[in-house]
Amino acid sequence: MIGDAGCAILRCLLGLAICLLPGIRKAQAVAQAPEKIIIDTDIGDDVDDAFALALAVKSPELQILGVTTTFGDTEARAKIADRFLGEVGRAEIPVMAGKATATKNPMSQRRYGDGGHFAKASHGDAVEFLLEQIRKYPGEITLVAIGPLMNVGAAIDKDAATFRKLKRVVLMGGSIRRGYGDLGYTAPVPPMPEWNINILNDVASARKLFAAGVPLFVMPLDSTQLKMDEVKRAFLFSQGAAVTDQLTVLYHLWGQETPTLFDPMTVAFVLRPELCPVHGLHIRVDEKGFTREEPGTANAQVCLDSSAEDFFKFYLKRVAAR
Amino acid sequence: MIGDAGCAILRCLLGLAICLLPGIRKAQAVAQAPEKIIIDTDIGDDVDDAFALALAVKSPELQILGVTTTFGDTEARAKIADRFLGEVGRAEIPVMAGKATATKNPMSQRRYGDGGHFAKASHGDAVEFLLEQIRKYPGEITLVAIGPLMNVGAAIDKDAATFRKLKRVVLMGGSIRRGYGDLGYTAPVPPMPEWNINILNDVASARKLFAAGVPLFVMPLDSTQLKMDEVKRAFLFSQGAAVTDQLTVLYHLWGQETPTLFDPMTVAFVLRPELCPVHGLHIRVDEKGFTREEPGTANAQVCLDSSAEDFFKFYLKRVAAR
Amino acid sequence: MIGDAGCAILRCLLGLAICLLPGIRKAQAVAQAPEKIIIDTDIGDDVDDAFALALAVKSPELQILGVTTTFGDTEARAKIADRFLGEVGRAEIPVMAGKATATKNPMSQRRYGDGGHFAKASHGDAVEFLLEQIRKYPGEITLVAIGPLMNVGAAIDKDAATFRKLKRVVLMGGSIRRGYGDLGYTAPVPPMPEWNINILNDVASARKLFAAGVPLFVMPLDSTQLKMDEVKRAFLFSQGAAVTDQLTVLYHLWGQETPTLFDPMTVAFVLRPELCPVHGLHIRVDEKGFTREEPGTANAQVCLDSSAEDFFKFYLKRVAAR
Amino acid sequence: MIGDAGCAILRCLLGLAICLLPGIRKAQAVAQAPEKIIIDTDIGDDVDDAFALALAVKSPELQILGVTTTFGDTEARAKIADRFLGEVGRAEIPVMAGKATATKNPMSQRRYGDGGHFAKASHGDAVEFLLEQIRKYPGEITLVAIGPLMNVGAAIDKDAATFRKLKRVVLMGGSIRRGYGDLGYTAPVPPMPEWNINILNDVASARKLFAAGVPLFVMPLDSTQLKMDEVKRAFLFSQGAAVTDQLTVLYHLWGQETPTLFDPMTVAFVLRPELCPVHGLHIRVDEKGFTREEPGTANAQVCLDSSAEDFFKFYLKRVAAR
C-alpha cells in the first residue's frame, strides 16, 4: 500500500493538474486561424504515412497547403497521395514530387497509385513549392516531416534564409534513449540507427536540419511506437467512411499485421501538443545516423515519452468522426 | 505401399483423364455467346454475396442482366450493390429491390451503401424485372439465387409459367448430408436447418422452387464450405485492383475473421461446372427447413462434394486478374 | 498550443509527482509479510481467470492459501486449476470446489483438466475451507473474488460474523458508468447487466456481499476492459516459461482472438493499488443485476478508471519474469 | 458446359478409379509390421519439424527407432526433441545429436528446451547411431530426412556400404518445377535455391545422397507448400491433448503466423503414399543448390504435386485423434 502521506500529496497534485487542464484546453480551442501545414512524406512504404495523412485531412484546425513526396520513386508516391486525397474528397490539395533517389525498396503500396485514379496531370517540384509557400506565408507554416530528409536538405541548400522562416518543423525521426521494440515491458532496447530510417536515409540533410536554426520539434522512436492493434483496427476499418476505407485498402497492400503509428504523432502533436510533451535537448546527429543527446544549448524540443492510450483515444475518435 | 497392379491401373486411368481434359476445356471456351444471368442476393449480411458478385463482374463469359435484392431491408442492400458495381466500373448493371421483409438482422455492411456513392436514382421491383427479363429471353437466363427465396417465391406465385422459362436456377442452399462445420477432419456434423439460412428464411418459397419444374442446380453446405483463409486473403486483398479493394472494405465491415465462400460456388459452377459435379437427387424441403434426400425422380441436380483447392485456384486467379 | 503559463504550472506539478513516486514505491516494497489471499474463481469459461492465477503464482508478495471454484461444474474447474498449478510447480496450493450449479455453459477449457494431469485426489468444500481459513487468520486474508458469487453468498449465509473477519474482498464485477465495449474512442456504451456476469449469475449473493460490512474493493467493467492484443500475446506466448506455456494452451482452448483481462486487475490491485485508484461509493445492486451508484455512505471502494498501458507494463513484466 | 461425350468418358474413368481405390486401401492396411523409421531433423528453427514429429508419434504404424538432430546447435535441438517426446509420453525414444555446425540462426524455439524438462542425460552421436541401427536392421529402416544433410553426408562418408542398406530415404528438399510462394493461383514462381534450405545448407552432402544408390523419395517444394491456416490451427490447437498442446506452445515460440507443413509430408508419405504420388526422375544437384531435372535414368522418386486438402484431412484427423 502507498503510504498515506505520499498518497495525499500525490492526489493533491494530480487534482490540481486536472483542474488546470480544462482551462488550457479551452484557451487552445478558441478562435484560432487554421494552422498552415505542409506534409513531406515517403507515403507508400511503411503504412504510417497514410495514417498521418488521414488524421490531417480529418482535422479542420489544419490548412494543408500541400503534400510533398520524398525518397525513392517520388512520382509513384505522389500518385498514391493523389489517389488518397481524391478518394477522400480533397483533390484540391496540391501534391509535389521531390527529386527521385535510388532505392531498392519495393514500395508496398505502389499498386494503389498505379491505376492513376485521381492522378494530377503533373507534380511540381517539392523544394520549389516548399520555398515558395514559406515566402508567401513567412513565420506561419509548420512543416510536418515524416519521410527521409532529402527535400528538407535541398531546401536548406537552396535558400537557408527562407527555410528559417518556417514557423517550425515537426519531425518524426531519431531514437534518443529507447530503441525499436522497447514497449515498456521487455528488456530495454538501445537506440540503433537502422530503425531510425528517416534520419539514416539522409544523414547529411538531417545534420543540416538540426543546425538550421528553425524551431524544431522531434518525435523520435522513444514516443512513437504506437501499436495499431487488432481491436483498434477492427474499430477503424469497420467505419465505412471514405478515409477509413482508404486506410483499410492501404493496410492490406502494406501486407503486415500491426502498423506502428510513428508518423501520425507529428500531426497529433500539432493538434494536441499535450499528447507528446517536449523538452529542450541538444541533439547531435552523428555520421552513422545516431541521434545523440549531448550537453549544450537545446537545438530541438524532443518528446521522449507519450501515452499510447491517450494518443489512440484522440486519433481514433478523430479519424472515425463523421 | 499401394499394390503394383492397382497402382498401374489407377495411373493409367488418371493419365487418360488428364489427356482428355484439355480437349474438353477447349471445346467449352470456343465461340460461346455470353451466359445471361440475374443474381438474386441478400448482399450486406454475410460477406460471401459480395465475393460472388466480384466473380461475376470479372467474368467476360457472363452477361449480368441485373442484380435483384432480397430479404430484410432490400433497399439498403440495393444501395450496397449500387456502390459495388459503381466502384468497379459496372454502374450500367440494373439493380432492383425485392419486397422488404421484417428482420432483426443488423446488416453488417450497411454503412457501405449509406453514403449513397453511385446510388441509382431508384430501384425497380425485383420480381417484375425478373419476369420481364425471362419473357424477353425465354430459355436463356440463368438465375443465380444466393439469398433467401422471397423473390423466387413471389415470381412463381405471380407467373409460374414464365418462371419455368428460365434456362435454370443455380441455388446456394440446403444441407443434404453434411452440416455446417464439417470440414472433413472433424467428427461428422449432421445437417441442421439453422445454418441453412437461404432455405430457412422462406421455407414456403423454397418448396415452391423445388416443385417449379425449372431445371434446378443446387450447391448446398456439403460442397460450399470454402474457407477464405489468411493466405488467400493476403493474396487477394493486396492486389490493389478496383474489385479487390471493394472486397477488402466489405470484409472489414463484415467484421469477422474467415469468410466462407458459399455463394461464389454458384457463379463458379456456371463458369466451370467441373468445379462442383452434380448428381440428380429428389430433395424434399420439409416444414422445418431440412433438405432431405428421398427416393423418387430427381427434382434437382445437387453438388455434394467439391475441391476447395480447385475452387480457389480458379476463383483467386480470376478475381485477381488484371 | 498550450498557454505558456498553464504549461509551466502543469510541468512543475508533474515534475513533483514524478519526484515523489520512487519514495512511495520504495516504502511499499520494504519488509512486508506476504499477503494471504484466497482466489475464488470460475476458471474454465472466459480465459481471464487463468491470467489472474498466473499473476498470483508469479508474485512472491502473495501467499496463496487456496483456490476455490464457483459456478456450474465446479469439479471440472477444480481439475483445471489443479493442472495449472501442477504444471507451474505449485501443486501444493489446495484447490476446493464450490457447490455445483446448473448452467448451459460449455466450458471452453474443460479439456485442459480432462486428462487428469496433476489432479488432486479430491477437492474439499470451498465454503468450509474459506471460513476455516478466516478463523485461522482473522483480519489477514484478502478474498480475490473473480467468479459469480455463489461461494461468497453461501459463506455469508453460513457464518456472516466469520466472513466479516476477512481483511477485505477484492471483487471483479459491476459496471458503474461504462458498459462493455466502451474503450474510450467509441460512442459511450451504457452499463448493461448481461455483461456484468459475476454479479448477474447470482444477484442475491452479490447483494449480500455489498451489505456484509466487510471492506470491499470493486474493479468493475469501467476499469478492467484490458485488451490483451496481438503484440502483447506475441510477447507473452513466446516466453517459453512454464506459466506462459500454460496460458498459451488455455488461450487456444478458449478459442477467441482477444482476451480481456478483467480478472487480473484484482490481483494487480492487491500488488499495486495505484494501478486502479479507488473511490468510496454507495453501490446498490438491483434485482436485475445493475450496479447503481447512489447517494449514501460508501459501501465499497470502487475503481472507475485505470491506465491499460500501466497495467500491462506491470502484468507482462511480472508474468514473463524468470 | 462440358461436351456430353467427353463428359461421359471422364465420368466413367473417374468412376472406375473410385471403384478401385478401396481395394487398394484395404490391401495396404492389412497385417503390416510397423515401419522402422529414424527421423533426422533440424527441429527448433522452422516449426514444421515439430509437426512432422507429432504425426510420427501419433502413428502406430511406425516404430521410431530414434530421432537425430542436424545443423547448427544440434545439442539444443536434441533438448527440444527430448522435451517434446517426454511431454507426449514417448521419452523412451532415443535422441542423438549430430556434429554441431556454425550458423547465425537464432533458433526460434530454443527456449522450449532450455529448461531441461525431460532432457536426457546425454545424447549419443547421430551418425554412429544411424549406421549402427542400419547394421542391426539391414533393408528395414526408412530414414526420414527433414533437415540439412550433414548427418547423411557424414554417414555416407563413413560407411557408404552400410548406408545403402537403408530401405529408403524419404527427403524433404528440392524445388524442381515450382518455387516457394507458388500456390497455384499466383503467377508462377521459378525454383530458387535460397528457399531450398535442406539442400542449400549442405550441397555437398545432398550430392552424395543423390548418388548414393539408396532408394530415394523426394518431397520438394513443388508438393509440400501445405499451409496450416487459421481454420486448421483453431481446430488443432483447441484439442487440449498432449501432442497438440506441445504444437501450440512451439507454434508461438516460432512466432510467425502461418506454418507451412513441408516436413510432415515425408511422414505422411510413409503412411499414405497416395497423398504424394511419385515419379522417377533424374535429378542433378548443382553447385548452387538447384535441384535440376535432367535426362537420364531415374535417381529419385519425386512427388511433384499433391492435394493440400487430402493431406490435411489425413494429418489433422490423425494428430487430433485421442
Provide structural commentary:
Chain A is an alpha/beta fold and 322 residues long. Chain A has 13 helices and 9 strands. Chain A has a 9-stranded mixed sheet with strand order 3-2-1-4-5-6-9-7-8, sandwiched between helices. In chain A, helix 2 runs parallel beside helix 12 (264-271). The termini of chain A are far apart. Chain B binds chain D through residues 1-3, 6-7, 9-10, 13-14, 16-17, 20-21, 23-24, 27-28, 183-186, 227, 229-232, 235, 257-258, 273-274, 307-309, 312-313, 315-317, 320, and chain D through 1-3, 6-7, 9-10, 13-14, 16-17, 20-21, 23-24, 27-28, 183-186, 227, 229-232, 235, 257-258, 273-274, 307-309, 312-313, 315-317, 320.
Strands, helices and their partners?
4 copies of one chain form a homotetramer.
Chain A: H1 4-29, E1 35-41, H2 48-57, E2 62-69, H3 74-87, E3 95-97, H4 110-114, H5 126-136, E4 141-145, H6 150-163, E5 168-172, H7 197-200, H8 203-210, E6 216-219, H9 221-224, H10 230-237, H11 242-254, H12 264-271, E7 278-285, E8 291-294, E9 300-303, H13 308-320
Parallel strand pairs in A: 1-2, 1-4, 2-3, 4-5, 5-6, 6-9
Antiparallel strand pairs in A: 7-8, 7-9
Helix pairs in contact in A: 2-12, 5-6, 6-8
Concise summary:
The structure is a homotetramer of 322-residue chains. The first copy, chain A, has 322 residues and is of the alpha/beta class.
Strand order of the largest sheet of chain A: 3-2-1-4-5-6-9-7-8
What helical percentage do the residues of chain A reach? 40-55%
Largest sheet of chain A: 9 strands, mixed
Residue fraction in strands of chain A: 5-15%
Global outline of chain A: globular
E-strand count of chain A = 9
Instruction: Work out the oligomeric state of the chains in this entry.
Output: homotetramer
- Which regions of chain A are unreliable across 5 or more consecutive residues at pLDDT < 50? 1-30
